[in-house]
Design brief:
The chain is mainly alpha-helical. Helices cover 46% and strands 11% of the residues. A hairpin with a 2-residue loop joins strand 13 and strand 14. The relative contact order is 0.09.
Length: 389
């Protein structure tokens, strides 16, 4: 597909479009210019893109409805006069299904002598390496999830401080969940489609003849499985989209899928400037980001100021004892339960949902960790970095 603006042609015919396109298969839509100003032209391959509906006037051609965020620049137009005025006039509007199929990036290019800067839509095919682990809330809906976590956690034979044991057990659990996701949880959307097709086939049979008792029982069972799988799919895309489920209970997976794709595009770090040099290679970008955070969390001096009392503003002896008291089991459990499950996963990929759903399994280790921390005021170095990030 090609989209051109400022064609400055009062009429655009098929012969002119063929001279630009250079291929046999072609459809196009054009908006004529007003004299030497304006003019829009959109050309596409009908074997790839099917035009269902469109809308146009002198200023735009709309073939789709999703606006992509732009990389590198904020604006696409400048009046080039004294007292400059900037605006983002030029946009790509995409069919929502495209965001599910392609990893698009929209770039703003140098403006040069024109009032407008060119914009380039392209698929980002760079290899950014393996996807980081993220705990998927939908896993908790699977009947085998809890027993698997319990067995993995209890079988992890780790010796050392409680903080070290928690850190190592979380690492072991993360690797185990990655494999469990592939072997057991699997492609939920594919499983859901298979079950829905089976239900549909049984419904069609029921229209022609009475179903046997076995078929009726299977249809009831399949509907129950389909309901559970649909919930898993909804939870997965809801979590990825980071949208509050204002329509709770209504299956709107496509909306969450589109929002997750838009969020991924908006938050992606495609390039970075280091000492005035633009880095676009994935390995160079990752190295620069890593070095930035190493610098942020590295201190040149180990000498830290110490505080000594008495602090009269705190209160009496009872208040001081209350502040210095050991963390109680009730306090720790209340803190865990009060956290919203879908918020801010740590750098290890685990969010609060995992701690809430698996609290009975990990509780003993966490309570021991908090007790030792209160007594020793020390943490494993790797755990400190995890809490900071």
């Amino acid at each position: 597909m090609v989209l051109l603006q400022e064609t400055k042609r009062s009429t655009i015919d098929e012969k002119f479009v063929i001279s630009i396109w250079g291929r046999e298969q072609m459809d196009f839509m054009a908006v004529d210019s007003a004299g030497a100003a304006g003019g829009l032209l959109c050309i596409w391959n009908p074997e790839v893109f099917q035009l269902v509906d469109c809308c146009s006037n002198r200023n735009f051609i709309i073939l789709s409805v999703v606006d992509l965020p732009m990389m590198e620049r904020k604006f696409t137009w400048c009046n080039s006069q004294e007292g400059e005025k900037w605006s983002r006039i030029d946009r790509f509007l995409l069919n929502p299904e495209w965001l599910q199929m392609f990893n698009f990036k929209l770039w703003g290019l140098p403006r040069m002598i024109s009032d407008h800067c060119p914009i380039l839509l392209m698929e980002d095919e760079r290899d950014w390496g393996p996807t980081p682990f993220r705990f998927l809330n939908a896993w908790t809906l699977h009947p085998k999830f809890r027993p698997f976590v319990e067995n993995t956690w209890l079988e992890a034979n780790v010796v050392g401080w409680a903080s070290f044991k928690c850190l190592q057990k979380l690492k072991i659990l993360k690797l185990a969940l990655k494999q469990w996701d592939k072997d057991v949880f699997g492609d939920v959307e594919h499983k859901l489609n298979q079950v829905e097709e089976e239900i549909h086939a049984l419904d069609l049979s029921a229209e022609d003849r009475p179903l046997s008792e076995v078929e009726q029982a299977r249809r009831r069972e399949a509907k129950g499985i389909a309901w559970k799988l649909s919930k898993m799919v909804e939870w997965a895309w809801l979590q990825k989209s980071r949208i509050k489920w204002s329509t709770q209970g209504d299956r709107n997976t496509k909306f969450f899928h589109i929002m997750a794709s838009s969020r991924r595009t908006r938050n992606s770090l495609c390039s970075i400037v280091v000492n005035g040099i633009v880095k676009e290679d994935p390995m160079e970008v990752r190295a620069a980001v890593q070095q930035h955070f190493i610098n942020q969390f590295t201190e040149s001096s180990r000498i830290r100021p110490r505080l000594s009392g008495p602090f009269l503003s705190i209160g009496g002896t009872e208040d001081v004892q209350l502040l210095e008291a050991e963390f109680s089991k009730a306090e720790i459990e209340a803190a865990v339960k009060s956290c919203e499950g879908n918020k801010a996963p740590g750098s290890d990929g685990f969010n609060h949902m995992m701690f809430k759903k698996c609290w009975k399994v990990i509780k003993a280790d966490v309570l021991q960790f908090m007790k030792e921390f209160h007594q020793n005021t020390k943490l494993v170095e790797a755990l400190i970095a995890l809490l900071l990030l």
